[in-house]
Structure formats: structure tokens, C-alpha cells
Amino acid sequence: MKKTLYQKIFDRHVVHECDNELPIIYIDLHLIHEVTSPQAFDGLRYKKRNLRSPNKTFATMDHNVPTNSRNMYDATPMAKIQMETLINNCKNFNIPLFDLQNISQGIVHVVGPEQGLTLPGTTIVCGDSHTSTHGAFGALAFGIGTSEVEHVFATQTLRQARMKNMRVFVYGQKNNNIFAKDIILYIIKKLGTSGGTGYVVEFTGPIIKSMSMEERMTICNMAIELGAKSGIIEPDQTTFTYLKNKNFSPKNNSWNKYIHYWSSLKSDNQACFNRNISINISNIKPQVTWGTNPSQVISIQNKIPKINTLKTKIEKEDALNALDYMGLKENSYLINIPVDKVFIGSCTNSRIEDLRIVASVVKNKIISKNIKAYIVPGSGLVKKQAEKEGLDKIFIKSGFQWRHSGCSMCLGMNDDQLKPYERCASTSNRNFEGRQGKNGRTHLVSPWMAANIALYGKFININ
Amino acid sequence: MNKFIKHHGKILPLQSSNIDTDIIIPKQFLQKINKIGFGKYLFYNWRFLDSEGKIKNKDFILNNKIYDNSSILLTRKNFGCGSSREHAVWALIDYGFKVIIANSFSDIFFNNSLNNRLLLISLPEKKIDIIFNITKKQKKVFGYIDLLKQELTIEKKIITFNMSEAQKKSVIYGLDQIDDTMYYKKKISTYEENNYPGYIKYS
């Protein structure tokens, strides 16, 4: 039988399967952080169970960490307890931890790939929905809840239903200043926030093929915003080049064995996809969200839609609520609307390539005086590389705050938050109500767009 | 553990789609390190007008006394989308919900609910509309669920729903999934011994 890439990886990892039970699949890599793991560790202790594979479990702290220092005690008391709990749990269960004193600390979905922990053909889970990011390497990677975290701790397996297969074929002529973020927002706009529910989405086509690993990670990162279980991209030479000589990548002779295996990881020609979507990106302009879910998107030069042009009653109600929350009007432009804050960071867009794009826009320029702008690198290693290239000096000179790594304002679990009714251009992945702070108004954009908004202090249409 | 076969409860109609987990339980409440006491933070940003939770939003349905002690939440498509935080499920259960009826659920939220015996019933939009219409006509509407028959009865109207055997078993018996999987411990070890190159050794 001809198989999709997802089916190949899934089938390869089946430990046990029988009728009327969910298949048990093996998990190669379990990434953990401070927010979704404490209750799982408690569960192990309560049932007197061991952690099956400490050598396949890696921890970092990211969600709560202060980004204005590397001192845990600068965090809120509750956040500090969570970080201390992670430190103690990792010590007790012998799990490697990238803590605040470790240069490799960072956002879990930045750390995994840059350490070479994320490898093609593997199954990867983490108690975080954006685990789909790792699918960019041809891994089957998905987010799980705390009960499942405990299940992986105890058994190194998960019970998982087989998902349906969707292929999104991306083609066309990419315009200048159009980035992976614009492309994935455009796809989400086309398919909707539940368009991928029940599916693993394989992204393919010449546009995907031409992307760097950083761009592919941005695409797979936001597959979850389509409602998909995961996103996945066939590994190729770009993947192998990125992984070579990373800390945990296979070395020497075993590298060649793995390359041989990884090269076989592709969907068969006649593989059956339950759904095939083709997306032509030839005419798209920079994308920006106007509402409170990632499918409420427009090209910057377009107007927010008229309510009566929306298809369903539910869409109309959603749009009315979103406009009310966002303080916007239907059938109006975002252009010239002032912005209060700009956030460049998150597991979507905080890698070195993203920061280089921002630097290229703001070099020798000063950001608008009504703007507070933050750049939060995805990891200590990204920060170090940016500083080696002198990007930090460009940012600071422009008026940006140059921070330490962490999830930061993406979800505002630390002090990096919006005040009520503040408007933010953000390179993160979710524009939900209250996501960046109660009554905060989030607009998702690419790093290039965010940098331009910072300079002008408002939404701007630049060709 | 008690079997969950039948449930009779009051329906709370929450007329909204794409309710994400940030709405169900905002991030500031994810810093607790246990599983209990999340109910008071459920839909916090909708229930309260202030950050301290002192000023109730009178227009929000959870603050309407008529719906006190509701155990069945009726809502629209894509419920539980967004973050994988299981805290969302803990908050719903702690508040008193046993059943959620919606057009569709996010995949991760679905699994999290299953692991906590929160029953999710997925129905076509037309059937959801019918139930919403009943709740519009009269305020206190009760639902009766029979898991074995896979039937939901509201005001003498019987609606059937689909459910996989694995899902049904999980909700009815509330088995410890880890114990269940541990039964195949030998198979896991065999997999680890035999599976190169799918099996990675991080050194």
C-alpha cells in the first residue's frame, strides 16, 4: 500500500495495535517545560512509578521566565515556584535541563531543533500545542496534555488515533517582502481555524521546498492554528545541512546511516490524501490579522471585510464580536491605525533569520516615539549569535528593548504583557482575546512587517 | 471508580464558536502546580470585568443564577482550540461540567477531555441549532445522556451521537491508561531493542 509520510512514521512507531483500542505508539523524544509538567511528575510519585527514559526527556524553562534578567527571583512568586519545581523534578528524575544559567536555555521549540534533538522520522511530543514546529524536519510532532505527559514519562509511549491526511501544495511567484508568516496566515485564512481538525497536514510544493529550515518551522508551527494535529514537511538536503554537527545530531558513521534512512522519508507518489489543497501565493501581500482568531486575516492594503459578505451566521457573529473587542470597524483599513507595542519573538519568529530581517529594516533608523518595542530571542544561542553579528547594537540604537530568551509576550505569563486596550503588532501565533493581557489587542504579522510598524508607529502599507 | 453510563443535568447554552483555551482558562492561572481549584477561574475574562475578579459581568451567562449548577455545556464549533493546556479541562470539571456538546472540538482538547472523563458529544450544526432553539424558548432545559445507547434526550427529543468504542470505554470506566499500557511493557522493550534506525539514542 502506498503511504503518506505521516503514515510511514506512525506505522514505524506502532508498539501494539488491536481492534477497539487506540494504537500504542513509541515516542522518541519528549520535551518538557515548567507549566505542563508539575502535575505529571506528581502523578508518577503518587503511583510510585519510574520515569522510563530520562535519556529521551529534555527540559527547558520558557513560559514563565523573566526576559529582563536571568535571575529566577525576578519572576512573580508563582512563576518562581513553577521554575523551582521543574529544577527539583529534573534533579530527582535525572532529566537534562536547560535552565536560566545555561546558554542553551530558550523556547522549547527553538531549543529542540538548534540542539539537534529534533530529527527526521522521529516522534516528538511536548505539553505545548506548538510542538508541531518540529514537523518541519520530517518528524511526527504534536502537542499533548499533562495526563499524556505523565503517560510518556511512565511508558515512553502514547495511545494515539490515526489521523486523516491532508496535503497543502504551495506554489506561485513569491513577491518581495513576503515571508513564511504571511504564507501560513494566508493558508489559515483560506482553510479556517478548524480546517485541519482531525488531520496531519503535509506542506509541500516548490515554495515550501525553497524555504530555509527557519521558514519551514514557522509554517509547521502554525499548523495548529488550522486545527491540525500537526504539520509535516519532507526532509531534504536543506534539513540535513541544518542538522549536521548539531549537539545531539548523529555523528561520524551513524550520520551516513541516518541520512540514508531520512532520505526515504517522503510520501509515496500514489499515496492517498483525504484532502488535497493547492495554494497560489503569487498575488499575496503582507498579511495582518484584524480579529481574535488567526483566520481573521487581510492583506495590509485591503479593508476589513463587510460583515454581510461573510458566509455563515456564525462567521458573522464571530466577526462582530472580534471587531468590538479589537476596537475596529468593518469595511475599514488598518492602515494608519496607531500601534502601542511591537513584539518580535515567540516559537514562531524568534530565530536568527527572523532577527536578521528585522535588523535589515531598522538599521540606522529610530522607532516611533509612541511605540514600545521588544525583541525577545528564541534562545540563549540565538541571542549569542545575534550579538556576534552586531544585531543587538542595531536594535538598541533603534530604540528596541533587547531581552533574554523566553516565551514572553506571546502569552504574557511573565511581566511582558499588554495593558487593557493596548494594540500590539506581534510576530507570535495567537491573537485570541486576552492572550497578551486582559483586553489587549493583538495583530499577528511577520517580523518584516513588525519592524516597519515599529518605525512608523502605525500600520503601514509598504511595497 | 464509578461507571459513567448515564447523566441528567441542566444545560448552559454558550452561543459562541472557536472558544479557545485562553478564554476557558487564562494564562495567569496556569502557574498552579496542582490540578485542583481551577473552576473559579473558568471563563475568567468573560465572567469578570476587572483583573481581580471582583466585578462580575452581568451579561455573561455563567453569572446568570438560572444556570447555576449546570453540568452540560452547549456551544458551537471548534471548542477548546489553541493551547494544549489540560488546565482548561480541569477548570470545566472543577466548575461542575460533566458533558460538553458542540459541533466540533480541537484534537488536543478532545484527548485531554477523554483522559479526565469529560464527555464530549459532537453533533452536526443543524442538531446544535435545534438544541439552542429549545434553550431560547425556555430557560431551564435539562438533558439526559445514555452512553450505552449513545442517545441524548432533550425535551422528549432524542438525538443520537457517534462515539468510538475506545472513547466510550475510556469515559465509562475511567481506566488508568498508564496501567493499561503497562500491560504491554514487554512489547515496548522489544520495540526499543529492535528498532533501528527509527529508534534514536541521544548521547
From TrEMBL, chain A:
Q: Recall the GO molecular function terms of this protein's record.
A: 3-isopropylmalate dehydratase activity; 4 iron, 4 sulfur cluster binding; metal ion binding
What are the protein's UniProt keywords?
4Fe-4S, Amino-acid biosynthesis, Branched-chain amino acid biosynthesis, Iron, Iron-sulfur, Leucine biosynthesis, Lyase, Metal-binding, Plasmid
Give yes or no: UniProt keyword 4Fe-4S: yes
Q: In Gene Ontology terms, what is a biological process of this protein?
A: L-leucine biosynthetic process
Metabolic or biological pathway:
Amino-acid biosynthesis; L-leucine biosynthesis; L-leucine from 3-methyl-2-oxobutanoate: step 2/4
Q: Catalyzes what? A: (2R,3S)-3-isopropylmalate = (2S)-2-isopropylmalate
Q: Does the keyword Lyase apply?
A: yes
Q: Where is the Aconitase/3-isopropylmalate dehydratase large subunit alpha/beta/alpha domain?
A: 7-457
Where along the chain is [4Fe-4S] cluster bound?
C347, C407, C410
Give the enzyme class.
Answer: lyase
InterPro entries registered for this protein in UniProt: 3-IsopropMal_deHydase_lsu (IPR004430), Acnase/IPM_dHydase_lsu_aba_1/3 (IPR015931), Acoase/IPM_deHydtase_lsu_aba (IPR001030), Aconitase_4Fe-4S_BS (IPR018136), Aconitase_4Fe-4S_dom (IPR036008), IPM_dehydratase_rel_enz (IPR050067), IPMI_cat (IPR033941)
Top-level taxon of the source organism = Bacteria
Q: Which cofactor does it need?
A: [4Fe-4S] cluster
Co-factor remark: Binds 1 [4Fe-4S] cluster per subunit.
Question: EC annotation?
Answer: 4.2.1.33
Q: Pfam families recorded for this chain?
A: Aconitase (PF00330)
The entry describes its oligomerization and partners as:
Heterodimer of LeuC and LeuD.
By sequence similarity, the record places it as follows: Belongs to the aconitase/IPM isomerase family. LeuC type 1 subfamily.
What's its job?
A: Catalyzes the isomerization between 2-isopropylmalate and 3-isopropylmalate, via the formation of 2-isopropylmaleate.
Q: What is this protein called?
A: 3-isopropylmalate dehydratase large subunit
Question: Which species is this record about?
Answer: Buchnera aphidicola (Cinara tujafilina)
TrEMBL record, chain B:
What are the leading ranks of the lineage? Bacteria, Pseudomonadati, Pseudomonadota, Gammaproteobacteria, Enterobacterales
Amino-acid biosynthesis in keyword set: yes
| Known EC number | 4.2.1.33
Q: Does the keyword Amino-acid biosynthesis apply?
A: yes
Catalysis: reaction(s): (2R,3S)-3-isopropylmalate = (2S)-2-isopropylmalate
What assembly does the database describe for this protein? Heterodimer of LeuC and LeuD.
Family the entry assigns: Belongs to the LeuD family. LeuD type 1 subfamily.
This protein is called: 3-isopropylmalate dehydratase small subunit
Got a GO cellular component term for this one?
3-isopropylmalate dehydratase complex
GO BP, one example? Answer: L-leucine biosynthetic process
Pathway it belongs to?
Amino-acid biosynthesis; L-leucine biosynthesis; L-leucine from 3-methyl-2-oxobutanoate: step 2/4
Q: Where is the Aconitase A/isopropylmalate dehydratase small subunit swivel domain?
A: 1-125
- SUPFAM superfamilies per UniProt: LeuD/IlvD-like
InterPro entries listed in its UniProt record: 3-IsopropMal_deHydase_ssu, Aconitase/3IPM_dehydase_swvl, AconitaseA/IPMdHydase_ssu_swvl, LeuD
Provide the GO MF annotations for this entry: 3-isopropylmalate dehydratase activity
Q: Which organism is it from?
A: Buchnera aphidicola (Cinara tujafilina)
Alphabetized, the UniProt keywords read: Amino-acid biosynthesis, Branched-chain amino acid biosynthesis, Leucine biosynthesis, Lyase, Plasmid
Using the UniProt record, name the top-level EC class of this enzyme in a single word. Answer: lyase
Q: What does this protein do?
A: Catalyzes the isomerization between 2-isopropylmalate and 3-isopropylmalate, via the formation of 2-isopropylmaleate.
Which superkingdom does the taxonomy of this entry point to?
Bacteria
Query: Which first-to-last residue range defines the signal peptide?
Result: none
